[in-house]
Amino acid sequence: MCIKMFIYPMIDFRLIFKERLITGNMKIIKLREDYIKLGQALKATGLVGSGVEAKNVILEGLVKVNGEVELHRGKKLYDNDIVEYNNETIKIEK
User: What's the whole-model pTM score?
Assistant: First the structure.
């Protein structure tokens, strides 16, 4: 039996969100804390494979938050924020 373990240094995603629900093209992140950062949300939902990829797509202007292009990967996302990238939508819920 082979068990793969991924370690995210300095980030414990279990502390950031309770669960990830996928409904159609909308992915929902349920927050445990008050917010999650944009780059972390893209990674947590599987829309990007790494933090570097998240940084690149954000800096290229491919990501929208609440209908407006967002260029800061550290943008804090709160309850009811909507993220759009690559024809996918992420909704943030408390």
Answer: 0.73
